[in-house]
Structures are given as C-alpha cells and as structure tokens.
C-alpha cells in the first residue's frame, strides 16, 4: 500500500528513460519544399540528406490540381490548385529520385537529389 502511489511516477520515469534513446536514433526529418508554377517544379532538383526521413512539401501555385508522384519514392498525392501538401518518405540512400506531376508530366518533373 505504501508503494502504490509511487508506482505511476516510477513508470513515467522509466518510460521517459526508454523513450529518449529511440528518439535520438530517429533523428529529425529533413524538410524540402518544391513549388509548382506554370506546371514546372522549382527547384527542379532539390537536395536532401541521406539516411534521414524527408518531409517533402509541395506548394501548388497553379490554379489547377496536380498530382505529386514518384515511383522511386513510392508517393502519389493530389494537391489542388493553390494548396500545399506534405509527404514523408523513409530514409534514402544517396541518389537521384525522379518525381513528377502526373497531370502535367511533359513539363513538371524533377529529381530529389539525396547526398
Ligand atoms: Cu498518378
């Protein structure tokens, strides 16, 4: 009975001690922003660090919807005109990963350069 009130505190301390190493291993995600305007991406070749999760923010300044897509990155997400979306990709090895707007692939393509 004496120890019962202390247990929740001990559990919380233990949980905190356990959570810390995992948080450190995970690392903060890197963030990359690409803007679509005139059905072109800028920058067309954004860079990101290898070995970290990457949040790709896609800003669509056009008045028409786009579909941010990459087979290499395994993402596909619609971003309506004037809106912004974000997609998260898992840590990547160094390389060039092609992406495009599936609705305007002729002009809207780029490469995520991971290094
Ligand atoms: Cu598609």
Q: How much helical structure, as a percent, in the residues?
A: 10-25%
Alpha-carbon distance between the two ends? 58 Å
How much is the radius of gyration in Å?
20 Å
Kindly report the CATH topology.
Immunoglobulin-like
Structural class: alpha+beta
**Architecture, CATH level 2?**
Sandwich
Shape: globular
- CATH class, named Mainly Beta
CATH superfamily descriptor:
Cupredoxins -  blue copper proteins
Uncertain runs: 8-24
In sequence order, what are the helices and strands, one letter per element?
Answer: HEEEEEEEEE
Query: Largest sheet at a glance?
Result: 5 strands, mixed
Q: Tell me the strand percentage band.
A: 35-45%
Number of strands: 9
Strand line-up across the major sheet? 3-9-8-5-6
What value does the average pLDDT take?
A: 86
What small molecules accompany the polymer chains? copper (II) ion
Query: How many structural domains does the protein architecture include?
Result: 1
DSSP helical segment count? 1
What does this structure look like?
The protein is 17% helix and 43% strand. By secondary structure, it is an alpha+beta fold. It has one domain: Immunoglobulin-like, CATH 2.60.40. Strands 3-9-8-5-6 form a five-stranded mixed β-sheet, with no helix packed on it. Strands 2-1-4-7 form a four-stranded mixed β-sheet, with no helix packed on it. 21% of the residues are buried. The structure holds copper (II) ion. Copper (II) ion binds at residues 67, 69, 76, 102.
